[in-house]
Write a structure and sequence with these properties.
By secondary structure, the protein is of the alpha/beta class. The protein has 16 helices and eleven strands. A hairpin with a 5-residue loop joins strand 2 and strand 3. Helix 1 packs across helix 2 and helix 1 packs across helix 5. It is globular and about 75 Å long.
């Protein structure tokens, strides 16, 4: 496909998205009807779509409208390309009209691409770093890997043999992919369980907790099991997993088998030394990977999420042995889901103490993430 034809395809996908279809589904639907498109074409079209979603309002301003065609015109201008050279007709979009040729006199800043009702909350939460974080949020996030084997110094070489270039991060076991990212899931180290795809921020959050080397640890909101596996790489304790929606855990068994890790089912008759609650949240820290989420989030949904988070923390608290630790995590940047939740929990549970707390944010830590450790009075 030509660059212009890829833009035309991205416009089609964005049309579907604006009609209410989730972005990933719209991309899949388009690909099924475009068997002629190669893997590089599909990847480029996906990049176009997600670049627009990260900078939706800026693209609208520079494209002179909110329809899919205008959004792609705006994206071309944001990326320093002349849309006239790509909108040429044929398999490419129709040439620009006289109105479309005129470049709007606007200079969108990073806050343009943040929903109005969230701007004040994010500025309060992030303080002096707010501008830097929002600028980073407009770009695609790097891909990070976590090395499963505790002392496997050959992983980097093995990845390189499969065309994947990586750099070691200061955090032990963390690799940043700097070349060949789309080959990772077909590589020998990934298929054999030597590495897992995991963002740097949760890796840092897991690393800051002093996990016990014996006893029982429960991942109460396990999902796909990424954090349970990360804990297993650091602790010899028995790791148990649970999720209110068991379907979310369908990948855990094959991932644990690849990593040669044993994960145990949740047993509500037991008490645990540590309970991890990686709670459902707004996902405001993951907008670089899931920019669609910020345009779907509403104040009512945030209120619902904070109630769910408080309920999960209270449920987890009763599963702990005396003196145990409750570890609370979100991929949110908002105080309502982070510091405020911790303060509210401590107010509801006299005698508990906060023994650790940290917030991670791009660009230094990739995704936005929050972690707090609360200790049972014992």
């Amino acid at each position: 496909m030509t660059p212009g034809a890829r833009i035309a395809a991205a416009i089609e996908v964005l049309d579907r998205w604006q009609a209410g279809e989730p972005a990933e589904k719209a991309l899949t639907t388009w690909a099924r009807g475009a068997r002629y498109a190669g893997s590089k074409d599909r990847a480029a079209i996906r990049d176009h779509v997600y670049d627009v979603l990260r900078r939706l309002e800026s693209c609208a301003a520079l494209g002179g409208g909110r329809d899919a065609r205008a959004l792609m015109i705006g994206l071309c201008r944001m990326q320093g390309q002349e849309p006239q050279a790509l909108f040429t007709g044929g398999y490419a979009p129709d040439p620009l009209t006289e109105v479309e040729v005129r470049v709007p006199e606007v200079d969108p800043d990073a806050w343009t691409d943040v929903p109005d009702w969230l701007q004040g909350r994010l500025k309060d939460a992030l303080g002096d770093s707010a501008e830097t974080v929002m600028v980073a949020m407009r770009d695609r996030a790097p891909l990070y890997l976590r090395v499963n084997a505790r002392n496997d110094v050959l992983v980097q070489e093995r990845l390189a043999n499969d065309g994947i270039k990586t750099e070691y991060m200061p955090l032990k076991g963390a690799l940043k992919v700097v070349g060949g990212a789309r080959r990772v899931r077909q590589s020998q180290p990934y298929l054999s369980g030597q590495v897992e795809v995991q963002d740097l921020s949760p890796q840092r959050a897991v690393a800051m907790i002093d996990w016990p080397q014996s006893g029982r640890i429960l991942d109460y909101c396990a999902g796909g099991g990424g954090k349970a596996l990360a804990i297993a790489a650091r602790s010899d304790a028995a790791i148990h997993v649970h999720d209110v929606n068991p379907a979310r855990m369908r990948d855990i068994a094959p991932r644990a088998e690849r990593a040669k890790v044993t994960l145990h089912p949740f047993d509500n008759t037991l008490k645990y030394d540590v309970v991890l609650t990686d709670v459902p949240c707004s996902g405001s820290g993951t907008w670089r990977r899931d920019p669609e989420a910020k345009w779907h989030l509403a104040p009512e949904r945030l209120d619902d999420l904070t109630q769910i988070q408080a309920q999960i923390m209270d449920e987890a608290a009763v599963l702990l042995r005396p003196g145990g630790q409750l570890v609370y995590m979100t991929c949110s940047l908002l105080c309502e889901e982070n510091e405020d939740q911790v303060a509210a929990f401590l107010a509801r549970h006299p005698g508990w103490t906060r023994t650790a707390m940290a917030r991670f944010a791009p660009p230094e830590a990739s995704d936005g993430f929050f972690v707090a450790e609360l200790t049972h009075p014992g």
